[in-house]
Specification:
Number of helices: 38
CATH architecture of the domain at 723-925: 3-Layer(aba) Sandwich
Structural class: alpha/beta
Mean pLDDT: 83
Largest sheet: 8 strands, mixed
Distance between the termini: 42 Å
Number of strands: 15
Protein name: CHAT domain-containing protein
Domain CHAT: 654-926
CATH topology of the domain at 723-925: Rossmann fold
CATH class of the domain at 723-925: Alpha Beta
Helix content: 55-70%
Shape: globular
Organism: Stenomitos frigidus ULC18
Pfam families: CHAT
Low-confidence stretches: 1-40, 401-409, 516-525
Length: 928
Amino acid sequence: MHQRVITLMLLFLFTLTVTVQGAAIAKTPPLQSEQRALSGSTEAQALEQQGRLLYGSGQFIEAAAAFNQAAQAYQTQGNTLRQALSLSNLALSYQQLGKLDESSQAIAQSLLLLQGKPDARGSSDQLSALAQALDIQGNLQLSQGQEAQALATWERVTAIAKQLGNQERLVESQINQAQALQAMGLYRRAIATLSTVLGLEPPATTTLEALKAKLITLPHVSTTAIALQSLGEALRVTGNLEQSQVLLEHSLRLAEQLQLPAIATTAQFKLGNTLRAQALADLSRNNMTLTTAVELVKESKVGRRFQGTDMALNFYQRMNEALSRYQQVASTTNATNTRIQAQLNQLSLLVETQQAAAFESLLPTVQQQINRLPLSRMAIEARVNLAQSLQKAAHSELKLQNSANGNSGQPNFRPLAAQLLATAAQQAKALKHQRTESYALGNLGQLYEQAGQWNDAQTMTQRALFLAQSMQAADITYLWQWQLGRVLKAQGQSQAAIVAYQEAVNTLKTVRKELVTTTPEEQFSFRDTIEPIHRELVTLLLDRESTAPNPENLKAARNVIESLQLTELVNFFREDCLTAKPEQIDQADPVSAVFYPIILPNRLAVIVSLPGRSLLYYATPAKEQITNERIEAIVNQLQGSLKQDNIPKSEFLPPAQQLYEWLIRPVKAELEKRHIKTLVFVLDGVLRNMPMGVLHDQTQNQYLVEQYSIALTPGLQLLGVQRRLQQPSRALIAGLSEARLGFSALPNVATELKQIQSQVSDSRVLLDTQFTNQSLQADLRTTSFPIVHFATHGKFSSQLENTFILTWDGQLNIDQLRSLLQRSQLGQKEPLELLVLSACETATGDNRAALGLAGVAVRAGARSTVATLWQVNDASSSTLMGQFYQELNKPKLTKAEALRSAQLALLRNDQYQHPYFWAPYVLVGNWQ
């Protein structure tokens, strides 16, 4: 369990170091025009030049002293402009030392001098100096977490640059604005800003070929290379990894052509990050863990190959490509900080890939360099980062050839990590940098937790938490609240642990923005970080020792699961685009029951919300020890036997009956007593890919769909409570019947569209060549359609970029679909009542693929979505859809009931009795 926190912390600092490096665009020396215009004593100028040289070599304490003396000398000379510039550079030096208060005072004095002169609109030199001071102030504000203020400051720099006609400063200020937007979690705005600066179409919506062609036409100047790097970084964070790689590679080539070694080094560094992200993202898409990949690679080296070996070797190759980038940066850069950052990333990567010999070789070098660093925030963060790698190495039992005591085997990394963290905490306290002090103390608390030293673990964690809360750093507060909950739980303090866990979940609700900005590496570990906080809290609330948890705990557990569903969708979208509504739709329907199956360690728990605000709870017996692995095996067995129509009942009925016994049987009598007609499922984990209608009641020899109407929802608070007031009267119906772009033909689509058209009086039909992105846009812009029906290939995946539907001229992703559908609703009275996606399928082998289905349903803005979990039979789909629309025309029939009737029509047809034909159709969203 504890490794999960280490992974998250490593990734956070990994991202942070890149951000700090990318922020330093403000120039330390004055502009050339200022150098020509300004004069002063030789002594003052010598001090100023000395400060620049010291700053460039990383000697920030000495640089600060030189700039401070220069500012005093210029003050004596009465040279206000030079004094202001020296104060700006003093502020920059203090910032590097982590002395943010002193930095703020210095930059405030500089700005007071520059803005207090009567000729505030004065000379170009004064305006240039003011722009530089504001630039430094923006960087300071960004480092202090004041993203909105930094953005406003850089907007002022942009205005000055326009006034001066300084194109280079203008572009730099816009790049800085984009960085502030990224820090605020507004990555899409940042990407739009940078794309405008470069004159590019949004790269995420452009083919790689078109993007490469456009890059060739960009100006060959340094600001182009810098902007490309910032845009490449933003695309990496939002998961557009191929585009990120293309931009960073072009930035690298451009920097090398212009002979700009510092910019080229940064490009190499960020390119390494992108390659690393690609490797981890590929593992995530293929549902392979990091541990499994490393083990498969080890086995392949001794000639043993297994299923997944090729995938693991590809992952290993990409990671080594990233490693070579870091090595190149470390070996070529003259900047000490950059070299250490690259080496720290090397160490963390070597731990992940279990390359013990290389780790052992590099570790002493990094230790020596960190020990020589002057007191600064960089030095503190480097110690914390190194300690995290050591913690992870200790946890993963990294075997070195030569341990610290001269014997081969497993060295004890924890004492060294503890020493590094203690030193980092002391230095952070000396610099009054609470954030890094909190990180150091929190990680130290984790070391004590791993050693079972509970009192020390609790003390350190509480100190870290106090610091995080005092500076309102919610993005790390939840980590220490979670850690405190674990420590309290381990000491048997269950109620106190519940309070800590609940506070962690509540804090997470306030930092959805930070979850949006997580990199693919962090999204890869989402199930190992954010998700366990919720699950461990639910486990505490539904204490195994309690046969009947109290109503308050049941309600709290249900709310936690709802919060997890919402958080996971935010993580999927990489944008905080969801607004939860406090009203629960289940309370507006007196004949519905909402099921929350919760997969917990060694049991399957179920909370059922019934009309009247009553909650029921039951779980599998303790003696059965229902593990996650057993649940997954049963679900996989059932899924595998449903996707072909020739699998006998003897294969799919046993798992379908087992799931029925666990999920439905314990509450069946209560459902009958309350005359429940509709079951709504908020599904968890591997269950999300399962069509609930196929669950089988062995006693009555009936499928669940024969007993109830069924609907799915990612969370009740995401739904509206309005009922459909009238039968369908207008629909946009589109489909592909011909083979297209590598996808097979769907010859019965034309029949399906005709049958729907016969049931909906006012229909607009787009078939094959008419079904293009442009025609969709034209129709949806001019007319609102309560129903939109797509009969085409599509895929639902746990990866946003791999979730799409197919049109004649390409793929339509979630964001494009949302844009089209929302445009159709602007200014229109009728909302989008129903979105139908027939012939789509969930990604094979992706246990979380249904997340993409839920994502489409929520993002499209439709009140209800009907879709298929696997690629259905073309002919049966045509029959079912015709029946579905016929049922929708019946008065007072809900959508869930209409779909059930259509499925039963297939089930009772001798030709289509197998669940392969009728089971994959699911209704997501408002079932009324």
